[in-house]
Amino acid sequence: MSVPTALSIAGLDPSGGAGIAADLKTFSALGVYGAAVATALTAQNTKGVFGIHDVPPDFISAQIDAVFSDLAVGAVKIGMLGGPAAIEVVAAALDRYHPRAVVLDPVMIASSGQLLLRGEALGRLRDLIARVSVLTPNLPEAAALLGTEPARDEAEMRAQAQKLLAFGTEAVLIKGGHGTGAESVDILLDARGEAIRLVAPRIATQNTHGTGCTLSSAIAAGLAKGLPLPAAAREAKTYVSAALAAADRLGVGGGAGPLHHFQAWW
Q1: Of the residues 52, 191, 241, 243, which has the fewest C-beta atoms closer than 10 A?
Q2: Cα dihedral sign for 202, 31, 232, 65?
Q3: In the chain, what's the furthest Cα-to-Cα distance?
Q4: Which of 74, 208, 222, 257 is catalytic?
Q5: Could you confirm whether 211 is annotated as catalytic?
Q6: Is 45 within 8 Å of 15 (Cβ atoms)?
Q7: Cα separation, 180 vs 202, whole angstroms
Q8: Is 42 tagged catalytic?
Q9: What's the confidence (pLDDT) of residue 123?
Q10: Residue 125: its pLDDT value, please?
Q11: What pLDDT score does 114 carry?
């Protein structure tokens, strides 16, 4: 029996904290073989994003074809797409290959504030949502997709998740990391209207670079292993919480450092 395999379609962070690097670390930590397709090359580190170079759309498509023609992909995690052309070729690839599980993390703004989704991409991204198994926006991203203000409490998070389901995804996980309070609460809502609260203590650390990427790729890892979505989401929440709690042990960079993806082994 072959090892479970997950594919990351995302941008490259050369400092290793977010994007493809974070996804591959997460897959490995959770017992899943990781493949990767680069949609953009970024010049960034723990202090900010200093430049973005988009990968040509036809080469994004060629990378995806190379992976699916050879590997048994159990789940796909989609992160930074940048512009509308990249979104179009990824959507076309999903239509070609019909992967069993697709997690879309609608990356729009880096933690440093740099805009990562440009041009007419927001509208195209809404179209892509209909092709995915679960959408994982944080509070600002959910608000941007809906053209409203960020949710202020769990009731508003659930209401926004319900509205996002109307875009056609099978489930929505709104991440509460940008919220306040002693607990970090995520809300998972599926098309049947069943809601699950995912709760963990809020961890006081500046080293949160790549948290959203890591949670989404951890969910994809669980789905690649055949877990049902609620179990995959719970496993992901537990993993990210532990990686955040250990982040200060790494001491990487002079700004917002990365999570400790391998805290259980190092």
Answers
A1: 191
A2: positive
A3: 47
A4: 208
A5: yes
A6: yes
A7: 8
A8: no
A9: 77
A10: 86
A11: 52
CA distance 224 to 75: 5
Predicted confidence at residue 119, as pLDDT, reads 55
The pLDDT score that the predictor gives to residue 105 is 96
Q: Residue 212 catalytic? A: yes
Q: Which of 26, 79, 213, 225 is catalytic?
A: 213
Beta strands in the chain (DSSP E): 5-12, 33-45, 48-54, 75-78, 102-104, 134-135, 171-174, 183-190, 195-201
Interhelix angle 139-146/121-129, rounded to 10 degrees, is 100
Catalytic choice (26, 39, 136, 211): 211
210 tagged catalytic: yes
Three-state DSSP class for residue 237: helix
260 DSSP 8-state letter: -
45 φ, ψ to 5°?
Answer: -150, -160
pLDDT attached to residue 63: 98
**Weakly modelled stretches of the chain, pLDDT under 70:** 1, 109-120, 177-181
| 119 exposure class (CB count in 10 Å sphere: 0-12, 13-18, 19+) | exposed
Torsion sign (Cα): 46, 24, 31, 231 = positive
pTM: 0.94
Instruction: Considering the candidates 16, 210, 222, 257, report the single residue annotated as catalytic.
Output: 210
Active-site entry in 175, 214, 237, 257: 175
Instruction: Look at residues 93, 80, 165 and name the one whose alpha carbon lies nearest to residue 125.
Output: 80
Is CATH 3.40.109.10 the right assignment for the domain spanning 5-249?
A: no
Residue reference for tokens 């796909």: 76
